[in-house]
Amino acid sequence: MESGLDHRSARALLEWHIALGADECIQDAPINRYALPDAAPVSVRKAAPVAEPLRAQIVPMVEVDTVAAAQRAAAAAGDLAGLRAALEGFEHCDLKRGARNFVFADGLAGARVMVVGEAPGREEDLEGRPFVGQAGQLLDRMLAAIGLARDAREAERGVYITNVLPWRPPQNRDPEAGEIAMMRPFVERHIALARPEVVILMGNHACDAVLQRKGILRLRGQWAEAVGVPVMPMTHPAYLLRNPAAKREAWADLLAVQARLRGGA
Ligand code: URA
Question: With a 6 A CB cut-off, is 140 part of the ligand 1 pocket?
Fold first, then answer.
């Protein structure tokens, strides 16, 4: 029988019925017992096949190791298109069910610089592209200040942009530790497949995902390494919009990236 319920809701409803004591499935179609002949022998009324109790039919909910599932899915991706498909098809992150769009990446795959942000916000969720809202516009201006552009078609000037989470968290809440742990294998594989020369980590959650470290105000401006690639943690553009005084340090961090690309320290 078709129903508008999804798997989880149908299961929850079934379990609720069982908790109330309705643990036996009689048959699919209802029986109008008033229409049964009065004289029918009891054995005839019982003739309809009685299904085995529902309790026995319910397979216990198996605890899925979502991080292991993410590791397998990410490792199996041989290129960026494969990774995109693996992430888009990943069913263990509940954020997927609340988001309008899947937001994978933007800019030039193969660019020398890759930016890893946090998660799509409202505009990104609507458009299906990372960093297109106010923080994204500031990011574009910051990158332009060191000669980079997401729409550039040469690796030299291009930028490849992604986020830790590909689905918008409800009300733009912070990503949860479990969500970051689940997405970490995908982010690491993303970096390995995009093969940038430098990764810029925008904000605390990107540092948590890629470096497994937090405390952006301490980490920013210090080169680190992840997946064999030099990474520069920076304060997030959204933070810079709220704290314009921090732009001076962000500018210093951008200059450090530029110097590295030019072959300096
Ligand atoms: N902030 C992010 O970290 N990523 C986006 O895509 C937009 C805002």
Answer: no
